[in-house]
UniProtKB/TrEMBL annotation:
GO terms for cellular component: membrane. It is a single-pass membrane protein. This is Fukutin. Keywords: Membrane, Transmembrane, Transmembrane helix.
Length: 433
């Protein structure tokens, strides 16, 4: 009996220690520590560059704060003084491509030979995502960029064993932690050589374009598990007409993206097109149109001429820039609706107009920000809080397909918004016969 009690006590102490250790790690991981025990050792940077040169791996300075400070003060240089790199808060970040890491495995071995302790992080499906290097000073951070078939660069979120996460987290500020804990996507960029603090580095050719891209790079992939469940539950075999529509709709969306990107007009998937992305990772086969949103501040008078120049016929124009602007174009019998959004307090809304009566409507959404995603091989924006946006537009039953839809009454967020005066209608209602 005494032996059993003693064994129970020992087991209780062991499990207690394990539990306390897990609670400690959980607390540490949920509360980023901003007290840094070390500063950057510039020699660590030199040795990183040396390892890259020895292994023919390009390491790109990828820290937007340091890059912007250097770009704005590139003429400032004092021999022997670390002006820019040593002012980093937390790990100094560089980037390498996944292809180079895969093709040049000697790179990691060379880092170890030069005295670095190498801590590796992989995605749940086994892709290398982040590398932290410890030597003499605060760690260096290598983020791994994956070139996607759609032509953009993907940075995976930082995930890994709790102990490894806790080790690196003590060096990272809360803002930086929030940046690397989410997936991110970047436009492809060229690089050039630059000497910073006496070290020959590789940097993005257009630093300010990179900094701007970095600020809005959060990425949200489509949920394939949800799409599979939806398709198993609701989808039936598509008709030949529906298959043709989906192909034409994709072509129309791709063309609209090309035009708007050239005009530097940001847009996002909206309405039924966003619902198709979020619910089934695809175009809704019976939707019969493509829907995108644009903030009214990004409207340009060049938009309509550029679309018409590319063969898209304008079918209607409602409202004016100051109120309820909406444009529709058509190509191959598929309609593209561009809804312009206005900010009003903590909400955003787009307008609608009934051509016959002049009645105005508004569709109200909680204020939202933009994230990137990949939709049918296209890098496009979506509202970051996608489900909140969809619920505003389609209600709590958004997962159930509905084929009968009245744009004036079905959406739960639609509101009557007065009507255009008879004297205004010639200017604010255009419908191509």
């Amino acid at each position: 009996m005494i032996k059993k009690k003693r064994l129970a006590i020992i087991l209780g102490v062991v499990f207690g220690i394990i539990l306390l250790d897990q609670l400690y790690l959980h607390f540490w991981l949920s509360s980023p520590n901003t007290t840094f025990q070390r500063h950057l050792d510039i020699e660590d940077v030199r040795q990183l560059i040396r390892a890259g040169e020895d292994a023919s791996v390009t390491t790109i300075l990828f820290d937007p704060v340091i890059l912007q400070a250097w770009r704005n003060n590139a003429d400032v240089a004092v021999p022997g003084v670390c002006i820019f790199l040593c002012h980093v808060i937390g790990p100094l970040t560089f980037a390498v491509t996944a292809a180079q890491l895969r093709d040049k495995p000697v790179f990691l071995s060379r880092l170890a030979q030069l005295g670095f302790t190498v801590t590796l992080f992989d995605t749940p499906d086994g892709k290398r995502s982040h590398i932290f290097l410890f030597r003499h000073g605060s760690p260096l951070h290598l983020t791994v960029l994956e070139m996607t078939p759609a032509g953009y660069l993907r940075q995976h979120s930082l995930t890994g064993p709790p102990h490894n996460m806790a080790v690196v987290k003590q060096y990272i500020t809360k803002d930086a932690w929030n940046q690397i804990k989410v997936d991110r996507a970047y436009e492809r960029f060229s690089t050039r050589d630059a000497k910073i603090d006496g070290i020959d580095l590789t940097v993005p050719s257009d630093v300010m374009a990179f900094v701007q891209d970095y600020r809005s790079a959060q990425y949200m992939p489509c949920n394939e598990s949800r799409a599979t469940f939806y398709n198993l539950k609701h989808m039936k075999d598509e008709t030949a007409e529906e298959v043709r529509f989906k192909h034409k709709a994709w072509k129309l969306l791709a063309k609209a993206k090309t035009i708007l990107d050239q005009l530097k007009v940001p847009f996002w998937l909206s309405s039924g097109t966003l619902l198709g992305f979020y619910r089934q990772c695809d175009i809704i086969p019976w939707a019969m149109d493509v829907d995108i949103g644009v903030f009214i501040e990004d409207y340009t008078v060049r938009l309509i001429p550029e679309f018409e120049k590319r063969g898209l016929i304008i079918t209607h124009k409602f409202g004016r820039v100051s109120d309820s602007l909406e444009l529709s174009f058509k190509e191959e019998e598929v309609k593209l609706d561009i809804f312009f959004f206005y900010t009003e307090g903590a909400t955003m809304w787009n307008g609608g107009t009934q051509a016959k009566t002049g009645k105005k409507f508004k569709y109200v959404f909680p204020a939202f920000t933009m994230c990137w995603t990949e939709f049918l091989d296209l890098k496009v924006r979506i509202p970051c809080h996608t489900e909140e946006y969809i619920r505003a537009n389609y209600g709590l039953s958004w997962f159930t397909p509905i084929k009968e839809w009245d744009w004036k009454s079905s959406p739960p967020n639609v509101r009557e918004n007065g009507e255009w005066l008879p004297s205004e209608r010639a200017d604010v209602i255009f419908v191509k016969e």
